[in-house]
């Protein structure tokens, strides 16, 4: 079997297992509503499904487990760990704060004192060092296996696009389960799903660059953790501010919600393509 | 897998697995004493005591991985590698760090499962133990930062009373 056929087979098996486990959220929706234990087990299976899919695929295709990218590779790469921590926080700060400031509510950001901001940053630093390990369940699969298998087939740009779409679609059961449970409308669920798909496709470019630059999935784990937690941390500071509940920032919030992440995608796509060019010797 | 990582895994797999198990101590106690846990505060106490016990056990496992390298044969092996003694120490520190992460992850999973079991029994248990676990794990790092250099400088008998 050629390398291309082998990669297609591996990728197909990996995606089949990952998506089959993600569909458990829809299939077992009723038991999850009635039993907290069932909800816990299914949620954990869903969260770890990319890692489970990676390990099963590697075992089934006899690839071995030698290149899981589980070394930290701190030497020479510590600055990229810091970038993984800081960039999502900066992006979400820009996307959430700028609309508020431009709409004239800048003076109402009383929760954003130096003490509050510093304490949030230190808490996030501590948590990202230890609590983020749970996200290995996703990154071992997406960046540690799927991207490596996709790149020989689709190229770097294709991998970022297709990989991001796969990552976003894998989250679809979360978005649709609320509607299926009777809460929210279908249009809201679909809007949430597509919004997440766009954000994750853009953010996935940064994660792929981090993984290739450091040869480790741990910076991607830290960045993914910060992507999830930055929004919660910023919302907690907004809750302490005295912005009126009926404050309307209009379309600005919609636009600014995507612009920073889109810029990140463009910059790191350029860096990825340049990295590829540097590694490929010219004839 | 590089030489040192493979060596550490082969030598210390049982300690690494025991570290994961130590995070599940509250669940093991709950299974052993099925009739316990009548109120939410019982579950809360179980989690807090399990955290302390599990953390102490995990700390013991982390120190146990330092033993076993005191034979001359290992010194020859370490010297023969390209990374040398610095690489050996680096991998030791990384492995002990990963063991702490494994304990924290397994304890967090255990706490969520116990909270779910309590919820099925109609009780509301606050999942605050894993929030306490994070600073305790950092204290664990502080203790290891003192233990490990003393161990390698003075040997096991003098460094660890």
Quick take:
The complex is a heterodimer of chains A (283) and B (161). With 283 residues, chain A is an all-alpha fold.
Short descriptors:
heterodimer; A: 283 residues; mainly alpha; 12 helices; 79% helix; B: 161 residues; 7 helices; 80% helix
Total helical elements of chain A: 12
Global mean pLDDT of chain A? 89
The greatest interface between two protein chains, and residues involved on each side, is:
A-B, 16 and 22 residues
Order of helix and strand elements from N to C terminus of chain B: HHHHHHH
End-to-end separation of chain A in angstroms reads 29 Å
- The low-pLDDT segments of chain A are none
Major pleated sheet of chain B: none
Helix content of chain B: over 70%
Please compute the radius of gyration of chain B using only Cα atoms. Answer: 19 Å
Strand content of chain B: under 5%
Beta content of chain A comes to under 5%
Count of individual domains of chain B? 1
> Helix coverage percent of residues of chain A?
over 70%
Alpha carbon gap, first and last residue of chain B: 35 Å
Low-confidence stretches of chain B: none
Which helices and strands occur, and which strands form pairs?
The complex is a heterodimer of chains A (283) and B (161).
Chain A: H1 3-22, H2 24-27, H3 29-34, H4 36-47, H5 49-60, H6 78-105, H7 114-130, H8 136-170, H9 172-180, H10 186-214, H11 218-239, H12 251-279
Helix pairs in contact in A: 1-5, 1-8, 5-8, 6-11, 6-12, 7-11, 8-10, 8-11, 9-10, 10-11, 10-12
Chain B: H1 3-22, H2 25-32, H3 40-64, H4 72-80, H5 84-120, H6 129-154, H7 156-159
Helix pairs in contact in B: 1-3, 1-5, 2-3, 3-5, 3-6, 5-6
């Amino acid at each position: 079997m050629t390398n291309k056929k082998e990669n297609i087979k591996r990728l197909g098996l990996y995606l089949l297992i990952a998506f089959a486990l993600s569909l458990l959220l829809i299939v077992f929706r009723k038991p999850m509503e009635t039993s907290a234990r069932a909800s816990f087990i299914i949620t954990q299976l869903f969260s770890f499904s990319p890692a489970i899919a990676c390990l099963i695929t590697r075992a089934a295709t006899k690839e071995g487990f030698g290149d899981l990218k589980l070394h930290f590779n701190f030497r020479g790469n510590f600055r990229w760990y810091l970038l993984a921590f800081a960039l999502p926080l900066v992006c979400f700060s820009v996307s959430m704060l700028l609309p508020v400031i431009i709409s004239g509510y800048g003076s109402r950001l009383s929760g954003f004192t130096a003490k509050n901001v510093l304490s949030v940053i230190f808490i996030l630093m501590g948590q990202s060092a230890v609590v983020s390990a749970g996200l290995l369940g996703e990154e071992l699969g997406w960046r540690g296996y799927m991207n490596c298998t996709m790149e020989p087939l689709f190229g770097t740009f294709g991998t970022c696009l297709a990989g991001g779409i796969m990552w976003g679609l894998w989250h679809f059961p979360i978005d649709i389960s609320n509607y299926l449970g009777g809460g929210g409308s279908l249009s809201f669920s679909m809007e949430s799903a597509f919004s997440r798909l766009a954000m994750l496709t853009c953010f996935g470019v940064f994660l792929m660059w981090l993984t290739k630059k450091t040869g480790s999935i741990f910076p991607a784990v830290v960045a993914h953790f910060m992507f999830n937690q930055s929004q919660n941390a910023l919302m907690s500071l907004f809750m302490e501010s005295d912005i009126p509940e009926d404050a309307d920032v209009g379309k600005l919030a919609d636009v600014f919600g995507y612009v920073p992440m889109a810029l990140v995608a463009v910059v790191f796509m350029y860096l990825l393509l340049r990295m590829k060019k540097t590694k490929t010797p010219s004839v | 897998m590089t030489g040192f990582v493979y060596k550490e895994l082969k030598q210390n797999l049982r300690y690494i697995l025991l570290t994961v198990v130590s995070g599940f101590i509250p669940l093991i106690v709950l299974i052993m004493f099925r009739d316990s846990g009548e109120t939410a505060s019982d579950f809360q106490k179980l989690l807090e005591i399990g955290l302390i016990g599990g953390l102490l056990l995990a700390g013991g496992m982390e120190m146990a991985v330092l033993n076993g390298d005191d034979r001359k044969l290992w010194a020859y092996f370490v010297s023969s590698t390209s990374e040398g003694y610095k690489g050996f120490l680096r991998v030791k520190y990384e492995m002990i760090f990963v063991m702490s992460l494994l304990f924290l992850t397994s304890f967090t999973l255990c706490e969520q499962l116990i909270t779910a079991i309590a919820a099925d029994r109609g009780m509301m248990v606050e999942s605050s133990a894993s929030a306490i676990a994070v600073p305790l794990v950092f204290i664990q790092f502080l203790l290891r930062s003192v233990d490990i250099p003393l161990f390698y400088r003075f040997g096991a008998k003098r460094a660890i009373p």
